Amino acid sequence: MSTPVVELQNVAKEYGPVVAVEDVSLSVQKGEFVVLLGPSGSGKTTLLSMLGGFTLPTRGQILIDGADVTGVAPAQRPTVTVFQDYALFPHMTVKDNVAFGLAMRRVPKPQRTELANAALTQVGLADFGDRRIHEISGGQRQRVALARAIVIEPAVLLLDEPLGALDVKIRRQMQNELHTLQRELNATFIHVTHDQEEAMSLADTIVLLNHGRIEDSGPPERIYREPASVFAATFMGDTNIIRGTIAKSGRGNVTVDTALGTLKCHGQGEPGEAVSLSVRPEAIRCGAANGPDRVKLGSGRLSDFVFQGTFRRCLAATGPDASVQLQLRLPLDTQAGSDAPTPIWTRSTDIVVLRESSE
Length: 359
Known about the structure:
Layout: E1 6-15, E2 18-28, E3 33-37, H1 44-52, E4 59-64, E5 67-68, E6 79-82, H2 94-104, H3 109-122, H4 138-150, E7 156-160, H5 168-185, E8 188-193, H6 196-202, E9 205-210, E10 213-218, H7 220-225, H8 230-235, E11 240-250, E12 253-258, E13 261-266, E14 274-279, E15 285-286, E16 294-307, E17 311-318, E18 324-331, E19 342-347, E20 352-354
Helix pairs in contact: 2-3, 2-4, 3-4
């Protein structure tokens, strides 16, 4: 295993009695796109601020390229931060904004002009160098901020919700461009967002934070399909949480007593242990449950159909007394009505056994 470009060792930040970040340890490899994800107050921005040197940790160590930078000022770190407001200079041209960091490093003017032009070309703004900041759009300003960051070739690029101020269409376009740019540069990006879709579209690794701790960490697909806790399952999109108690356990399978009956699925635990089962809405199907891996969830009367473009969202009231409501995302070609109860099922591999916390 290669030496991590970024390593956090039991990093914590406390503001009096308030714990913003609690003993976080994290390794980031060179060329990795890491997204710090979590709700407001989860500690993701504080963590990024400590990486950039703008906030000193209460305890712990921060290593970049093997060097301890815990107490090093931002300007002396091999990092650059792109803020949500971009922090561009309105009195300068686009090209001068991009070249500003090079000027602070005393790079000769002919060389910094050449490097600034090359960076603007990389972000698709080759013809915008002589414009003023107020003469370009929000998406273009975001590209200028990126160009200013990458032109000095930092070891790590830190992005503090840089797409948050853009409208939905431009934000999605910029997500694609940001992902492509990171791959072309083979650069290490650490990106903060509270947007799950943005995190899944960008990240090699998602670090999901909750109350200053790492709740889950791994590739986007694994975190979505096999979350580590109830919080991770519910934060990473819609899911159905079914409470139950393990009745039997063995050979990597558990049988769980629930309000929908006894459900068998992959997982581990001890008999008598209270657990939660997560089933994503798109993993629930209607009709006959034929096949060895099918798990019956009862019969439900469907209601509240909502067209969502690529699927229809609806609810199914199921269980012995129809007291359990499940959310479904049905393919558009599914023939299901609301007149009579419809058999509901899922696959055993789509049921995830969860505990309340990943700890």
